[in-house]
Design brief:
heterodimer, A: 110 residues, mainly beta, 7-stranded mixed beta sheet, 4-stranded antiparallel beta sheet, B: 115 residues
């Protein structure tokens, strides 16, 4: 069966510091991968998706970036965090219609 | 543009009773998919049920069923025999045809099951 991992689970970072969140999927190959952000009490906002290694599509312009160095690894990064980057970040994978989510990373920028 | 609307910020239901969570959508796509996810306090988004726009029968998964009314553009989630563990946020989502990587989510409904 497939599993999806995210780390870290929680993160507190100062404004202006860099960010790296990692997502890995097990039990499948060539998945589509997604990064979402959820502000407190809100729905999910799609940030990036990837259909293959090195292929990244951005949905929302911002100071975040994403990379896919391996088939089942998806990384969300920032060079300088903003207060508005605080939120709950969810990674998801899909092979067909349904997206399956990881446990999420709660990021607080102070 | 695709849009998902969940008009109920919060709902209460008595344990063992059924509850309907509302979802309406707007799309110009002819083919699309509708999803419901559950988000407990832990934060993980748990997939519950899927309905394709060309599926003639309403989807069912155990105690979950999707009341799909295409002409009204609604995709309500029905939870039968509510349990205390059903207390969570519930999100309706839609994926279109032309960019099937673009999943749009509603604002969510917080369901509380009372003992």
């Amino acid at each position: 069966s497939q599993t999806i991992h995210q780390w870290p689970a929680t993160l507190v970072q100062p404004v202006g510091s860099p960010l790296s969140l990692e997502c890995t999927v097990e039990g499948t190959s060539n998945p589509n991968l997604y990064w979402y952000r959820q502000a407190a009490g809100r729905g999910l906002q799609l940030l990036f998706y990837s259909v293959g290694i090195g292929q990244i599509s951005s949905e929302v312009p911002q100071n975040l970036s994403a990379s896919r160095p391996q088939d089942r690894q998806f990384i969300l990064s920032s060079k300088k965090l903003l207060l508005s980057d605080s939120g709950f970040y969810l990674c998801a994978w899909s092979r067909t219609d349904t997206q399956y989510f990881g446990p999420g990373t709660r990021l607080t920028v102070l | 543009a695709q849009k998902i609307t969940q008009t109920q910020p919060g709902m209460f239901v008595q344990e063992k009773e059924a509850v309907t969570l509302d979802c309406t959508y707007d799309t110009s796509d002819q083919s699309y998919g509708l999803f419901w996810y559950k988000q407990p306090s832990s934060g993980e988004m748990i997939f519950l049920i899927y309905q394709g726009s060309y599926d003639e029968q309403n989807a069912t998964e155990g105690r979950y069923s999707l009341n799909f009314q295409k002409a009204r553009k609604s995709a309500n989630l029905v939870i039968s025999a509510s349990q205390l563990g059903d207390s969570a946020m519930y999100f309706c989502a839609m994926r279109g045809t032309y960019n099937n990587n673009d999943m749009r989510f509603g604002a969510g409904t917080r369901l509380t099951v009372k003992p």
